[in-house]
C-alpha cells in the first residue's frame, strides 16, 4: 500500500509547489503595489475643480505610497480621448483615470465611441455635486418659480446655455422641461466656462452647469443660483432650493467624479487604491478643501461603483432616447 500511494503523494506535493510558484508573482505584485510611479489621467484642462481634486489625491498618494503619482491632463472629445487612453493601457494599476459622469454619457452619445464601459473597471466614486440652474443677475426671473413661469409664458424665447449638447446638464434640464411642460432655446457650448461667461455677460439668459464650476461666480454675485438638480440642497449654498422640493420630484440628477482603471486590473490592487483614496478624501482637512470647491465627499466600494456605472448608463440612455437627444 505504501509503495503504491507514495508516487501519488509525491505528485501532489509537486503540484502544490508548482501552484504556489505560479500564484506567488501575482500576490507579490499586489502586496507590494505600487513599485513605480502611477499616472492619473484627467480629461479636462489644468486648473479646474476636477483637476484640483486629482492633484490633491495625487499629492497625498505620493506620500502614502512612497512613489510619484503623476496627474496628466488629456483633453478632447468631452473626455473620451483620455478615457480611451486608459482603456487601452496595461491593466496593472499604474494607469488610472479620474473622470465624471461624462465617461458614461460618451458611450451613449458618441456613435462610434473609442471605448465602452466594458473596457474599464470602476475603482470608486469620490465626490458628488449637483447641477445648478444659474441666470444672469439682470434676467427678469429672479427665482426658480419665476423661471418656470417665464418659460411657460414665452415658449422657446428663454435662451439656455449648455456646456455640451447631450451632457449631464442637458439631461437634467430635459427632465425638468418634460415635467414642467416648458420649451427653451438651447444654445450648446464647447464646455461650461464659455456658457457661464455668456450668462454673466447677458448674451444668454441662463445655463445649467456643475455647481463646483461656478461656486465663486455665485458667491460674487456674477450669477444667480435658482435651483439645484439633486434631491438635496448643497451644503455650500443651503438657501438654494432643489427642483424636486419646488414641485418637480422627477428631477434628481447628480454629477459625480470617480476613478476607473483598465478592465482586468487585479482586484487586490483596485481594493488597495480604493482604501487609500478613501482615507485621503475622508480626512477632515481634505474634506474642507474638497467642499470649498463645491463638492461633497461620497465614496463607495469597488463592487458598488461598478454596479452604479451600469445603473447610471441605463438611466441616462432612457432619458436621452425619450428626449430625442441626437448622437454626436
Question: How would you describe this protein?
Answer:
This protein has eleven helices and ten strands. It is α/β, with parallel strands linked by helices.
Radius of gyration: 24 Å
Shape: globular
Report the β-strand fraction as a percent range.
15-25%
Secondary-structure element order, as H and E? HEHEHEHEHEHEHEHEEHHEH
**Major sheet description:** 10 strands, mixed
Secondary structure layout:
Elements (H helix, E strand, L loop, with lengths): L1 H30 L6 E5 L6 H17 L3 E5 L6 H8 L7 E6 L1 H8 L10 E16 L8 H10 L5 E4 L5 H13 L4 E4 L3 H10 L4 E5 L4 H5 L4 E5 L25 E9 L4 H15 L2 H9 L3 E2 L4 H22 L5
Parallel strand pairs: 1-2, 1-3, 5-6, 5-7
Antiparallel strand pairs: 3-9, 4-7, 4-8, 4-9, 4-10
Helix pairs in contact: 2-9, 4-11, 6-11
Main features:
19% strand; 11 helices; alpha/beta; ten-stranded mixed beta sheet; 328 residues; 10 strands
Compose a concise summary of this entry:
This protein is of the alpha/beta class and about 325 residues long. The protein contains eleven helices and ten strands.
